[in-house]
TrEMBL record, chains A, B:
Gene3D superfamilies: 3.40.50.2300, lambda repressor-like DNA-binding domains. SUPFAM superfamilies: lambda repressor-like DNA-binding domains (SSF47413), Periplasmic binding protein-like I (SSF53822). Residues 13-67 form the HTH lacI-type domain. The keyword Transport does not apply. Pfam families: LacI, Peripla_BP_3. Signal peptide: none annotated. GO terms for molecular function: DNA-binding transcription factor activity; transcription cis-regulatory region binding. Transmembrane segments: none annotated. This is LacI family DNA-binding transcriptional regulator. It comes from the Bacteria. Keywords: DNA-binding, Transcription, Transcription regulation. It comes from Alterirhizorhabdus solaris.
Length: 350, 350
DNA sequence: CTGAAAGCGCTTACAG
DNA sequence: CTGAAAGCGCTTACAG
């Protein structure tokens, strides 16, 4: 049983190799890798030199087997915007790889009962769930997840659940700032296109618009608010209605970029120049805002970063002792910025 | 050393548990899981029952540690289209999780020298590389990857390298079929917007357009071909030029959807109805084609499926004995379909 | 067709 | 601050 053939495949150096070269035990190498403090600087440096010399890279499989640190996070999505999903994925994927968590991406079928979905997640040994919009606002899904005892992170919700982590920007404040920016440019008649009624951020954005108008002492004309649902098509209808008002608004602030792009299209169709005859602003800083021409001034949400933080929070919760879990729920507000581009300017002189 | 405390964390059932319940050895359980043939049906069923009873799910970490089947695949991307990336990711992620490969997503900085990039990949223990457009067409990158001995899969290239796997649709044929479709509708003056000159699919799509015209015996008017580079902006310029021709084309076929969307915008700006006054077709079936209104008739590429297949091919190559690698390179052509939507119709009567 | 032994590369839980 | 031992859950390479 001794002269057994070595297993196939040249593998890289291991902790044992590093330990030998550095003249320490594998345990000490492990400590250095995991940046524990209780290692003498001299020892640490020897180990680091050996790691660099050998080009050692830890074996993730072995690490998670030994550490018992398995962590599978499901990303449940039903967002029609591929751009949003892709940016979200980049953030959560990077973080997952960093902390050695496994990310499971699951497209949510709206027809599947939530009980079945949650059952499937447990079957896949999912430890936690990432919930980007619009699922983050689904009460039935949240209830099912809470009942299953799964840690959850809601991203971009206007109404964080008590049991879940939440990562949001201040949508109300962002809309307020964008509207105030337009007012500062000289606009007095600013049209607003709302988001979908079933997403909590829609109301927040609308509230920011209302407050900015009030702060500036501008009259509130209900004809200047048109209902949208975040789709381009709804933006077309809403912008058409807004531009039919007399007198015409000199600016339109849409609750997302797809609808802002639609407003630009309607303006062009009516031979209005953007921004000379009409300023248009959007929300989200999605691909659409940079694709069309002119490029749209919009509110930038750090989607990738929010995904990254949400993933880190979930992994922390999973690896925590279960007792303290409820106490550690975090509602984090991240900073937004306004991206000034080419679609806004002063109102026409008329 | 005996009464040692068990490790923390309730773990699920293991092969040992299944083996005990089924009255077989762990080895046999492993065989059943890996669907080896040399297990008696009766034994297999006992094991399967035990698996179902216990709700056993294999531990991936242990499996890859023991099996030595580590496989890290890098997805190198520089594609400006988030929609493309996101769909690509869905496919490769699903396959990677299925075959227990690790996917590393790496944004390519065009300023970084390729030698450094390839060096970094080796440092991360990357075993293979997925190359979607436009990187799939970069000769310097391909050369560096080949020199490093890394298996590569090119996706959607018009010119597959001899050493690499390639997954493509027949772009020439797809463009031919779309053009022929327009001709079948009655169009005789069909404008064409080309793709970027440095991507190999651009020439293929152009060739398909040319061939369809020739097949139908239509004259080849060089003014009906406008140079684009796949951006919306270039589509705006190209469509403006095409619509200035006298007589005006009754249809425009753009080499991607962003440019087709731009053509729709230019038409609307000129008060032309789409499709009553002008038919517009695109290529790729990207999010843009379904976002704008009217929705665009386009060529559907199964991007997720191509990514899935490419990932599977690479994993196969990595796990192969190195000797046979070169012999196993595969150039696969997958089927495309035409998605008929609302942007095309017969030419106007006059 | 089935099984006993060894080992994958790392970390936990102790002990000193 | 450092190390020797055991074990994570599975598969490989044999042997029967």
């Amino acid at each position: 049983m001794r002269g057994r053939r070595p297993r196939l495949g040249a593998r890289g150096p291991t902790v044992a190799d590093v330990a030998r070269l550095a003249g320490v035990s594998p345990m000490t190498v492990s400590r250095v890798i995991n940046t524990e403090t209780s290692v003498l600087p001299a020892t640490r440096d020897k180990v680091r030199t050996a790691i660099a010399t050998l080009g050692y890279v830890p074996n993730l499989a072995a690490r998670s087997l030994a550490g018992g640190q398995q962590c599978r996070i499901a990303l449940l999505h039903a967002n029609p915007s591929a751009a949003y999903l892709s940016e979200f994925l980049m953030g959560s994927l990077a973080q997952a790889s960093l902390i050695d968590a496994q990310l499971i991406v699951e497209q949510c079928d709206p027809l599947e009962p939530y009980q079945a979905l949650v059952g499937r997640l447990s079957g896949h040994r999912v430890d936690a769930v990432l919930l980007p919009p619009p699922l983050c606002d689904d009460p039935a899904l949240l209830a099912a997840l809470e009942a299953a005892g799964l840690p959850v992170a809601q991203i971009a919700t206007g109404r964080p659940a008590a049991f879940a982590h939440a990562l949001t920007i201040d949508d109300e404040e962002a809309a307020h700032r964008m509207t105030t920016h337009l007012i500062g440019r000289g606009h007095r008649r600013i049209g607003f296109i709302t988001g979908a009624a079933n997403q909590t951020v829609s109301a927040a954005r609308r509230a920011g618009y209302d407050r900015a108008l009030a702060d500036a002492g501008l009259p509130h004309d209900p004809r200047l608010v048109a209902q949208g649902d975040f789709t381009y098509r709804s933006g077309l209808l809403a912008a058409t209605a807004l531009l039919a008002c007399v007198p015409r608004p000199t600016a339109i602030f849409a609750s997302n970029d797809d609808m802002a792009a639609a407003a630009v299209a309607v303006a062009h169709r009516g031979h209005l120049d953007v921004p000379a005859d009409l300023s248009v602003c959007g929300f989200d800083d999605s691909a659409m805002s940079r694709t069309i021409w002119p490029e749209i001034t919009t509110v930038h949400q750090p989607i990738a970063d929010m995904a990254r933080q949400a993933t880190a929070l979930l992994a922390g919760t999973v690896r925590e002792r279960s007792a303290a879990r409820e106490a550690s729920v975090r509602h984090v507000r991240v900073a937004f910025t306004i991206r000034h581009r080419a679609s806004d300017g002063p109102p026409p002189l008329d």
